[in-house]
Design a protein that fits this description.
The protein is an alpha+beta fold. The chain folds into 2 domains: 11-219, Orthogonal Bundle (Endonuclease III, domain 1); 230-341, Nucleoside Triphosphate Pyrophosphohydrolase (Alpha-Beta Complex). The chain is built from 14 helices and 7 strands. Strands 1, 2, 3, 4, 5, 6 and 7 form a 7-stranded mixed beta sheet that branches. β1 and β2 (246-253) form a beta hairpin. α9 (122-131) crosses α12. The longest helix has 16 residues, at 90-105. It is elongated, with a radius of gyration of 24 Å. The mean pLDDT is 89.
Length: 343
DNA sequence: AAACCGGGGGC
DNA sequence: GCCCCAGGTTT
């Protein structure tokens, strides 16, 4: 049993973690063949989603856009459809933008080169540089931050912790296996050193973990204060018509710098919070959608249209799935389509 | 339904 | 450094 200083891990502890990773790491599609393209796409997907949810998206993505060139030349709409359901759609736009840069300038050869790419920050650049380029670069994500905070019992505030975790990660990097080392720390954080109910007994680093020794594992790291969600009340209007004996739905494209830019959505109207607009005669119910720090309530209204409508594109209902529609509006469609089928 | 996690980027 | 982005999972 070593009880080394967690600020500066002993070689024995480092090897212990790497061996645990070698023996327990999951068989993930992007790990099998860690080319820059595959690591890049997987890392950006993983920024906001769990591993399990990412796997089918990653595999579909690689079929749709097998190379950076195919991504660079692809239609933005196709890219958004492939990303549909993952959320934070700006990331898909950034992937597309970066693909075009890479397609003309070549692959970034360094950490700094990756950091200059749109949508790539400190974490993702460090991950790609170490995993795909095999460069000895550290990285820090939420998992590594938590592992660091617990190992050293660092109870600093959330913003302080970030700086300290990066220092620690740089100091303790196993340079000869940087990619594996970074992934081992993240895997540890995701599977054992979890935010809630950590599995300390199974942890390869428990003998040098200060928080474990002090019995304060679940109190570290300090949780950031969260703001209450802002409530928004909107009416979502589902315009519909029968055209050539087919049901068609009126949709718009979210404008630049608006929510869900470039995605296909139902027209909405701001509502007075004090009014319960579901009382309106054409309202069929409500949909709630919580994102980041907004709680949106949509009063869904059906409205039949005869002929055209300016600013609204009518699309065959059966073709809706080919359009990039954010989850919130898919919920609206789910409610509206059920009602429309009853008519 | 409430609580929770999360990385990039603009300021 | 702080705050916003326009979400999903866990409890």
């Amino acid at each position: 049993m070593t009880t080394g200083n967690p600020e500066s891990l002993s070689e024995v502890d480092q090897q212990r973690l790497l061996e645990w990773f070698d023996g327990s790491s999951r068989n993930l599609p992007w790990r099998a063949n860690p080319t820059p393209y595959r690591v890049w796409i997987s890392e950006v997907m993983l920024q906001q989603t769990t591993v399990a949810a990412c796997i089918p998206y990653f595999e579909k993505w690689m079929e749709a856009f097998p190379t950076v060139e195919s991504l660079a030349l692809a239609d933005m709409k196709r890219v958004l459809v492939a990303w549909q359901g993952l959320g934070y759609y700006r990331r898909a736009r950034n992937l597309h933008k970066a693909a075009q840069i890479i397609n003309t300038q070549g692959w970034p050869p360094s950490l700094e080169g990756w950091k200059a790419m749109p949508g790539i920050g400190n974490y993702t650049a460090g991950a790609i540089a170490s995993i795909a380029l095999k460069l000895p670069t550290p990285t820090v994500d939420g998992n590594i931050k938590r592992v660091y905070a617990r190992l050293t019992a660092d109870q600093s505030s959330f913003s302080q912790l970030d700086k300290r975790a990066w220092k620690w990660a740089a100091k303790n990097l196993v340079s000869s296996r940087a990619g594996d080392w970074n992934q081992a720390l993240m895997e540890l954080g995701a599977t054992l050193c979890r935010p809630l109910a950590p599995k300390c007994e199974a942890c390869p680093l428990k003998s040098c973990c200060l928080a474990h020794r002090l019995g304060i594992v679940e109190q570290v790291p300090e949780k950031p204060v969260r703001k209450r969600a802002v409530e928004l009340h909107l009416a979502a209007i589902v315009y519909w018509r029968v055209h050539h004996e087919e049901l068609e739905i009126g949709l718009i494209q979210a404008e630049q710098s608006n929510w869900w830019e470039g995605m296909t959505i139902f027209p909405t109207q701001q509502l007075d919070q004090s009014l319960d607009q579901t009382e309106k005669p054409n309202a069929i119910g409500r949909v709630t959608h919580t994102v980041t720090h907004h709680k949106i309530t949509f009063a869904v209204c059906l409205e039949q249209v005869h002929g055209k409508m300016s600013g609204v594109n009518f699309v065959r209902a059966s073709a809706l799935s080919e359009l990039p529609m954010p989850s919130a509006h898919q919920k609206i469609w789910k409610l509206a389509s059920k009602k429309l089928l009853d008519l």
